[in-house]
Amino acid sequence: MKISARNVFEGQITALTPGPINAAVTLTLSGGDQLVAVVTQASVVDLGLAVGGRAFAIVKAPWVIVTTDDGGLRLSARNHLRGTVSAVKAGPINAEVVITLPGGTVVHAVVTQDAVAELGLKPGVAASAVIKASHVVLGV
Amino acid sequence: MKISARNVFEGQITALTPGPINAAVTLTLSGGDQLVAVVTQASVVDLGLAVGGRAFAIVKAPWVIVTTDDGGLRLSARNHLRGTVSAVKAGPINAEVVITLPGGTVVHAVVTQDAVAELGLKPGVAASAVIKASHVVLGV
Amino acid sequence: MKISARNVFEGQITALTPGPINAAVTLTLSGGDQLVAVVTQASVVDLGLAVGGRAFAIVKAPWVIVTTDDGGLRLSARNHLRGTVSAVKAGPINAEVVITLPGGTVVHAVVTQDAVAELGLKPGVAASAVIKASHVVLGV
Predict the structure, then answer these.
(1) d(Cα B38, Cα C18) in Å, to the nearest integer?
(2) Nearest CA in chain A to C134
(3) Which of A75, B52, C98, C111 is 20 to 30 A from A5, comparing alpha carbons?
(4) Of C21, C95, C134, Cβ closest to residue B23
(5) Contact C91 A91 (CB under 8 A)
(6) pTM for this structure?
């Protein structure tokens, strides 16, 4: 697949809730992690999305929030992938942060350089990739 | 809270409209500004979101649109926070723009360097931060 | 219009599907390309959006996915604008990619520098700009 998005996760559709405009689709990745996507109901029909089918969840790196808070914070974002920072590439404004999940899945995030400093992001630090369901594109 | 998102606004939930897949949640910030978030209905239940409760609205800087147009332009984005540019940090492609609202709330935006030049963004310039409701993550 | 978003497309509303929280609005651009936006139903009412009316579709460059895959890949993102790369501006982390559509419309995307290398993005290469409907802001 030739796509600019840094995150392309393959998995199986394990739940699908239709709605009038949008639908919620749950993908279970090979490592066992789950990703929820909210896509238009028109896409569900067009792509023939159904429980049991396979699909790709596609997420651009700037759409990923990184958190090192595993304390009391609970977020409305449906996707909260816990892992470990495996790489940080610094730039003048932005930085690219790579988080590796226990199942081996790799998540790329682009955050500000300020955030890298504040959160102390560097290889080995426990961190989560937080992704809002409405930011996930599905592909088949 | 240890989160990479540059914008974390605390407020009180003053309205909540449920829907089959998504819900609209209005947060009133301490300075009186209002922020509308569209989150999944599942999150409303999971986080126990209800009118009167407190929550954080979380928005990554690249999701914020900056406008200096207070003329006729009207946008579908529910959140239009009027303030003054208080800082601009330039980079080769992107720039970070800080807008301070009258109530003291500070909003961070990452826009292209081209946009900074075109809009003449610099400290002291009146500008608005525009945020689409479906781009706001809620936290409790 | 003084707005930081790099993509502002004018067109006519040719379809509108209302919903309880969100509505889907289709805009037909002057070049014939179509763009679907998912906005809140409250915005439809506030802006007086209706079939036959004119509106602007506004999309920040980091929301645009670039793909050079015109093979079997099918995406849930409603907007798939096929064109040719007309410019690439490189940065340390991100790059700005400009795609010109056959009708003359120009689309700006910010992608990672890694993606530019992997996809071989340079002037003359056929590429598509993929935009999720919920990432489009409408203006009037």
Answers:
(1) 16
(2) A134
(3) A75
(4) C21
(5) yes
(6) 0.92
